[in-house]
């Protein structure tokens, strides 16, 4: 990579703003998977060991700023405090959590920092201007530091104030995680060993569906499961009950079905339930017979067998997005079986991308069975699509 890295910066005594991706799964105030925090440690430790004052910034979840009630609820749910507590357990220096994103409390905390100290500020999405890359916000944040480091690989596909705007004001470099991700992903995707099989799932349909167009060009098979599959099933004219659907992506799905032909593989059955949580009825049905009022929450056993068959002989596998709502054991089977099948492939380069997919693989005990577990879902897909990643593009060249 021709971009500057942290090693190219003279960080001693400097206030270094580091954009990390600490968007980790949290349930009942507890972090259920800290992979993204652990993955940022090489950069954080390097900086503290070299005498930097490290100011960490990250988003957590999504916050709706259009509706005041939803905004307040989002802030409450996505408070960064548990992340700061976990970080403190993982580093030797002092971590100060500042529960705001601007103002005197933040500025004083930074002014009081010694070399090797760490400040983690509140969720960047508490600011309405973050996701819009508001120039005033970016300039304000940049004023809090001397240098900027981009190490939030999971968010480098977002052109936000904390990932891109801020970098326009300061000398900048990529962190070790971003470097490692690019090295590993390019090893998998540039001149891949064939057959190359891509498996997509998860819930961020509108975000990720477009990548299928490019995957149909570069992969030998594209398997679609998880929440993403139902937009395709709807595009085929099937009834999908109350399953996840992105209405405005149906036309795109139709195009991909026509373009993909046999290359595009869809699930044939689903585990369906009459509610997302606390369902009173759960059953396995063919995807031709999803009853009204039921939603597909996992791929069914026939789909598992089909996907396993399609995976046989694969030499490169790229997997992004769980096959079902794996957080609930009732809907975890598809994800477990697919994860297992990929991990058992002989001599295959296997890459998982995405916060939830990585969490699933780690939770299921498959951490060491993959060639690379990427901390970025959308980001790794966009990289593999050949798209420019704004959070890396903005970083200074060497
Ligand atoms: N059929 C489905 N219906 C609703 N949500 C689903 C379904 N299948 C998977 N999911 C959800 O998708 C989420 C992960 O999606 P996504 O964010 O796209 O993946 P990643 O974080 O790996 O990139 C998980 O929380 C999972 O519960
Ligand atoms: O979890 C993330 O992306 P991913 O689900 O694609 O892996 C990143 O933290 C980006 O979050 P966002 O999709 O809310 O911008």
TrEMBL record:
Q: Where in the cell is it found?
A: Cytoplasm
Catalytic activity of the protein = (2R)-3-phosphoglycerate + ATP = (2R)-3-phospho-glyceroyl phosphate + ADP
Q: Give binding positions for substrate.
A: 21-23, 36, 59-62, 125, 158
**Residues involved in ATP binding:** 208, 296, 327, 354-357
Which PROSITE patterns did the record assign? PGLYCERATE_KINASE
Q: In which pathway does it act?
A: Carbohydrate degradation; glycolysis; pyruvate from D-glyceraldehyde 3-phosphate: step 2/5
List the SUPFAM superfamilies. Answer: Phosphoglycerate kinase
* EC number from the UniProt entry: 2.7.2.3
Residues annotated to bind (2R)-3-phosphoglycerate: 36, 125, 158
Query: Top-level EC class, please?
Result: transferase
Gene Ontology cellular component terms for the protein in this record? cytosol
One GO biological-process annotation of the entry reads: gluconeogenesis
**Pfam family of this protein, just one?**
PGK
State the superkingdom.
Answer: Bacteria
Query: Its family?
Result: Belongs to the phosphoglycerate kinase family.
**What PANTHER family does the annotation carry?**
PHOSPHOGLYCERATE KINASE (PTHR11406), PHOSPHOGLYCERATE KINASE 1, CHLOROPLASTIC-RELATED (PTHR11406:SF23)
Quaternary structure? Monomer.
Q: What is this protein called?
A: Phosphoglycerate kinase
Upper classification of the organism: Bacteria, Bacillati, Bacillota, Erysipelotrichia, Erysipelotrichales
């Amino acid at each position: 990579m021709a971009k500057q890295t942290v090693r190219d910066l003279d960080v001693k005594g400097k206030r270094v703003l580091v954009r990390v991706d600490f968007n980790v799964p949290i349930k009942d105030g507890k972090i259920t998977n800290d992979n993204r925090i652990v993955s940022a440690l090489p950069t954080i430790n390097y900086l503290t060991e070299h005498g930097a004052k490290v100011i960490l910034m990250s988003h957590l979840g999504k916050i709706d700023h259009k509706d005041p009630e939803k905004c307040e609820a989002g802030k409450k749910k996505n408070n960064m405090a548990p992340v700061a507590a976990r970080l403190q357990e993982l580093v030797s220096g002092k971590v100060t959590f500042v529960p705001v994103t601007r103002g005197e409390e933040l500025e004083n905390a930074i002014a009081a920092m010694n070399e090797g100290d760490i400040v983690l500020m509140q969720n960047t999405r508490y600011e309405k201007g973050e996701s819009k890359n508001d120039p005033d916000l970016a300039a304000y944040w940049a004023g809090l530091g001397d240098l900027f480091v981009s190490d939030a690989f999971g968010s480098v596909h977002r052109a936000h104030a904390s990932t891109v705007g801020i970098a326009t004001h300061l000398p900048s470099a990529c962190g070790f995680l971003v470097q490692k991700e690019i090295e590993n992903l390019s090893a998998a995707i540039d001149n891949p060993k064939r057959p190359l099989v891509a498996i997509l799932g998860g819930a961020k349909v509108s975000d990720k569906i477009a990548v299928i167009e490019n995957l149909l060009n570069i992969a030998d098979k594209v398997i679609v499961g998880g929440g993403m599959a139902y937009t395709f099933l709807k595009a085929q004219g099937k009834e999908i009950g109350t399953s996840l659907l992105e209405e405005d992506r149906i036309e795109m799905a139709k195009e991909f079905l026509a373009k993909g032909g046999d290359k595009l593989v869809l699930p044939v059955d689903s585990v369906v339930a009459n509610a997302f949580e606390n369902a009173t009825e759960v059953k396995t049905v063919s995807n031709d017979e999803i009853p009204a009022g039921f939603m597909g929450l996992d791929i069914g056993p026939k789909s598992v067998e089909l996907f396993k068959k399609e995976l046989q002989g694969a030499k490169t596998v790229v997997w992004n997005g769980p096959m079902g709502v794996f957080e609930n054991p009732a809907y975890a089977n598809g994800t477990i079986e697919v994860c297992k099948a990929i991990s058992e492939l002989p001599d295959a380069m296997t890459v998982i991308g995405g916060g939830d997919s990585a969490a699933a693989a780690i939770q299921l005990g498959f951490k060491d069975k993959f060639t690379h577990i990427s901390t970025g879902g959308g980001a790794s897909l966009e990289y593999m699509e050949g798209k420019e990643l704004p959070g890396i593009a903005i970083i200074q060249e060497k």
